[in-house]
Design goal:
- Helices cover about 35% and strands about 35% of the residues.
- The protein contains 1 helix and 6 strands.
Length: about 120
Amino acid sequence: MIGTTRRASIESGRSGSRRAAAALALAAVLALALIAPAAANASPEGPSSLTATGTVVSVKASERTVTVKLTEGGEGRFVWSSDTRITGVLTPGARVTIRYTAGDGGNNQALQITVARN
């Protein structure tokens, strides 16, 4: 009888730690489920950043501007700054994707310019 009581005591201790581990795992899953959607919607450039894709028509380095014939139609003029991340070489005819914020007078502030590899 003594052996049976001791075994039951050990098994009940194991089930208690299993319950605690399961509760901890459930809490972690719930926390991730709540955090993930908020992180997916967060943007380092802010909520008003837009994206444009097209072909470079002209580049004016002295004015830090690039004019792009947009895939959706029309042209867009974008201004870059020292904070703008530019990947690749901006040349007329290059395909680009530009993440930007809308500016006054058609001067859109480029946040990132990515030149497609051919």
